[in-house]
Design goal:
alpha/beta, TIM Barrel, 8-stranded mixed β-barrel, 6-stranded antiparallel sheet, binds ligand C2E, cyclic-guanylate-specific phosphodiesterase, CSS-motif_dom
Length: 534
């Protein structure tokens, strides 16, 4: 499959993925949100149930405290009063008195209706406590309806009891959760369950939510709330209903952005190719001043891109794009061709320097040496000093291999410079790895110069370092007389910048070299006219 085709297919895949991403994320988030909502509802329901059960327990214990007034009184004397108390207070099925395990008096059945076990339809729990309560599946009189019995036993064997009808609790549960299909279970003291909701086991599906259990801090009451899958599904559907339109908008936006990004990527590559074909690139040359020779002894080649409408694209933009799009090698080869053509028109002394910028990808390319050698052969009649400028902007991975190639080219008479020194992450390691001849100080450090007799610590340190390593130093971006003099005083041998000359096209360079190329640069003079002229 040709690479172009493969890229396009990959692009479609990327657009589809970008479109799906918000949808998938949305579905996941809403599922989590639905679970959270349902869980909160479970907690709220359980807490409401507990609160109601606690209120009923409070009533029951209050009633038992009230019954204390009938202590030592025979059932015949209190029967009517008991009946009235039992009937007039909410929640109660019956209330009464105890003697040991025997029920001696009941608001429902009068005197001596039987034992406590017979009334509860089970043995009383062994709690060892004078106050206890337990949920039961029914009572002697109403065996099929759950209830809760509250008992207080006095040390003298007498006691009081109250039975709350479970119907009140079941009604409350129904009101809370019947419409939502909740299954709710309440137990007092691990007694019989009082339940409401569907009795069947919920199917084991992903949508099943965990039962929520809660206990009262005041009484031995526990509740459990189970939510059916349909509730979770409903909550999910509601969340999706709100979220899906937003997700759809996000999907469309993301697809448009991805498509634009892909188009831009493809268009940079295509545009650079087209621009090379249509000769929209040209080379500008910026003169370099030699302090020793006191005249221009070389130039740096800087690529320019002129659009047919007269606009230009900044080199830092199209060079970065070419590096990212894998176009820097063809572009540099194009630069070398343009330079070779221009150089044929030059009238310069042998040894005149021509510096050219090289990107890391090209240095690592297997045909790098051949490319440079071809260029050198094409301009060999001019006997130029070719300087290869490495920049730290993009990292050179295979340092040893690149160093070997550079050494080979050095043996054939070329020089190597490190460009924009100090701005990257690996300035010092480059000094150690590569066979360098020149160090070009970035204009950021030159801009820091404030006074001729003062210090510029970092700049001074770089200059000293270069001298120690026996590298020749070039100051880049020199714009003022002060900067020029400062560098001159500190033994910087080459100067490049607007103060000396701006980058210019080939025709203007030839004229400039003729008129000003041999003139010394004097710091005291005003160079305004010279700069504008160039
Ligand atoms: N403010 C200021 N700027 C000054 C002064 N003197 C020169 N300059 C600018 O500083 C840049 C020097 O080039 P660079 O550091 O190699 O930085 C270059 C270089 O890294 C890259 N570049 C340019 N042409 C090529 C090329 O053919 N190949 C590669 N790989 N990179 C290139 O693009 C960068 C920017 O290039 P340009 O825009 O041409 O910008 C040039 C030049 O116009 C000055 O006194 N003041």
């Amino acid at each position: 499959m040709p690479p172009q085709r493969r890229n396009r297919d990959f692009g479609w895949l990327l657009i589809v993925c970008a479109g799906l991403l918000p949808l998938v994320l949305g579905i996941l988030c809403t599922a989590i949100e639905a679970r959270h909502t349902v869980h909160q509802q479970q907690i709220t329901t359980a807490n409401s149930l507990l609160a109601q059960a606690e209120r009923m327990s409070d009533s029951a214990w209050d009633m038992i405290t009230e019954l204390r007034q009938f202590h030592y009184q025979p059932c015949s004397a209190i029967e009517d009063k008991l009946q009235r108390e039992g009937n007039l207070n909410a929640y109660f099925r019956s209330i009464g008195k105890l003697e040991g395990d025997n029920v001696t008096c009941s608001s429902a059945y009068g005197m001596n209706p039987g034992s406590l076990s017979e009334m509860m339809l089970r043995h009383p729990p062994v709690t060892g406590k004078a106050w206890w309560s337990i949920s039961i599946r029914g009572t002697f009189g109403v065996p099929n309806r759950p209830a809760v019995i509250f008992v207080r036993q006095l040390p003298d064997g007498e006691g009081f009891w109250a039975v709350i009808d479970g119907q009140y609790l079941m009604d409350f549960m129904r009101a809370l959760g019947e419409s939502r299909g909740y299954r709710m279970t309440m137990r007092f003291n691990d007694g019989a369950p009082i339940t409401s909701g569907p009795a069947e086991q919920l199917p084991e599906t992903y949508l099943k939510s965990e039962p929520w259990r809660a206990e009262s801090s005041r009484y031995p009451i526990s509740v459990e709330v189970v939510v059916p899958p349909s509730e979770l599904l409903k909550a999910w559907r509601q969340a999706l209903f709100i979220f899906l339109p937003m997700a759809a908008i996000f999907s469309i936006l993301l697809m448009i952005l991805t498509a634009n990004w892909l188009r831009r990527r493809i268009s940079w590559r295509d545009e650079i190719r087209r621009a090379m074909r249509n000769r929209q690139f040209s080379v500008h040359y910026q003169p370099v001043y030699s302090m020793a020779a006191q005249h221009c002894n070389g130039v740096e080649a800087l690529l320019r891109w002129h659009l047919p409408n007269g606009d230009t694209i900044r080199p830092d933009i199209f060079i970065s794009a070419a590096e990212e799009e894998g176009m820097i090698v063809p572009l540099t080869r194009h630069l070398l061709e343009l330079m070779a053509e221009d150089i044929q028109s030059w009238q310069v002394e042998p040894g005149f320097h021509i510096g050219l910028n090289l990107a890391a990808e090209h240095l690592q390319h297997p045909e790098f040496v051949a490319d440079i050698q071809l260029f050198a052969r094409r301009v060999q009649n001019k006997k130029l000093q070719i300087t290869l400028e490495l920049t730290e902007r993009s990292l050179i991975h295979d340092g040893e291999d690149v160093a070997r190639k550079l050494r080979l080219l050095q043996l054939q008479g070329m020089k190597v410079a490190i460009d924009d020194f100090g701005t990257g992450h690996c300035s010092l390691s480059y000094l150690q790895t590569f066979p360098l001849d020149y160090l070009k100080i970035d204009r950021g450090f030159i801009n820091a110069i404030e006074r001729l007799d003062g210090e510029t610590p970092v700049l001074d340190a770089i200059i000293n370092l270069a001298h120690k390593l026996q590298l020749e130093v070039l100051g880049e971006g020199v714009e003022t007389s002060l900067q020029f003099q400062y560098l001159q005083q500190r033994g910087v041998v080459f100067i490049q910048g607007y103060y000396y000359a701006w980058p210019m096209d080939n025709d203007r360079l030839r004229a400039w070299l003729n008129e000003q190329g041999q003139q010394p640069l004097l710091a005291e003079e005003s160079h305004e006219s010279e700069l504008h002229h160039s």
